[in-house]
Amino acid sequence: MLTLYYARPSGYSRPVWLALLEKKLPFKLVHLKMDGDQFSSEFSQISPFNRIPVLVDNNLPIIESVTILDYLEAKYPSPSFLPNDAETLAKVRMVQMIGLNELFPATIGLLIHQNNPSELEYAQQRVIRVLALLEDLLGDNPYFAGEQLTLAEIVTGTLVPELPRFDISLTNYPKLSNWGEKLLARESWQQIRLSDKEFTDFKRRLRVWQKIWQKRRRQKILSFARQNQIKS
Question: Are residues 121 and 70 in the same domain?
Fold first, then answer.
């Protein structure tokens, strides 16, 4: 059976969880707390960089959310989340990667830079720029690939509908707003979505987690320095 090691608040975990649900695959969930579970010796054996999520299939651990999604698409192709024609495929991949590389870090910036006006404004402008592009790419279609739900929705659709929680209005993006509302109505989206309480708790604990991650990073830097001293 497939096993997904994940954390509910993780923006990288939810797309994988969604894909498993939408493909109607049997799987087991193993929840990890983001304040330290990912650094356990047991988890380090399957995730050498201590990152969430990890999918284990037939004793094969697969790391990095993009790789996991591609693996699921290749091994379990029905229903398919990637279009066949080159132009639509390019659009889907663009939306997927824009979500991961632009929108996701920008939303984190909206939370962690509340007391830094210049950084906060940069994060806001980054989000607005993404929304304008996505509104144009979506057009009048129900999905970015037309009638087909794809990885564009699986990834970016976990972020855009949540932006009002980050004080980013979707009023100026009616097509995206309607698209997001339809996604949130799906059973799978309802299953993976954070409740208001969970989202509030996530915002409160994010800075604590950030300090823990920074501490682990410093520890690794010191460990590497000691190892190099020993070798020299």
Answer: no
In a domain, 94, yes or no: yes
Phi, psi of 210 (to 5 degrees): -60, -40
Is residue 214 situated within a structural domain?
A: no
Entry pTM: 0.88
CA distance 48 to 38: 10
Does residue 185 sit in the same domain as residue 101? yes
Dihedral sign for Cα 8, 10, 15, 20, please: negative
Number of H helices, E strands in the chain: 10, 4
160 close to 103: Cβ distance less than 8 angstroms: yes
On whether both 176 and 117 belong to a single domain, the answer is yes
Contact 27, 57 (CB under 8 A): no
Spatial CA neighbour of 67 closest among 10, 16, 2, 129: 16
**Do you find a cis peptide bond into 9, omega within 30 degrees of 0?**
no
Q: Please, are residues 191 and 22 in contact by the beta-carbon 8 Å criterion?
A: no
Give the domain-ending residue among 79, 95, 117: 79
Phi-psi region of 124 (alpha: psi -120 to 50; beta: other; left: phi over 0): alpha
Report the candidate in 161, 126, 158 with the shortest Cα–Cα distance to residue 10. Answer: 158
Q: Tell whether 127 and 37 lie within a shared domain.
A: no
155: containing domain? 86-190
pLDDT digits (tens, 9 = 90+) for 18-55: 999 999 999 999 999 887 788 888 999 999 998 999 99
